[in-house]
Amino acid sequence: MNLNTDHYARCIRTLEASLAQLEKAEPESIEFEIFRNAVVKGFELTLEIGGKLLRKALKLYTGRPRDVDSLTYKDLLRHAAKHDLMSTEMVEHWFVYRDNRNNTAHDYGIGFAEETLTLLPMFVADARTVEATLREKLGNGHA
Which residue from 29, 19, 49, 20 is spatially nearest to 127, judged by alpha carbons? Predict the structure, then answer.
């Protein structure tokens, strides 16, 4: 079974493009707020798609896919490290991303948005690494 990472790769590219537009916008402008909102939502979507792909990937490593379905998000990440789909350092990063995502989902204050923005450079790099790893180990060969 091949794991298609095309949608995930597109989510990452969209997030990068939104971030580039945000960096061009004048702070305090409506454009800045629009792009900040887009970046936060792009971050959330990219994180969720990455988690879903990791869950699908782990099902390929076990004879019991239902066991993978029952894993918590953080346990899913730990198992991804056990199967060399992520480094243990990256798993720690993703714990932070997930905690941040859970906070932004419940409180869309500027503070949470700003916290998300500080995580984005590392998150984009980590998301690209996950996408490349999944594509190389289990993928369909294109990005």
Answer: 49
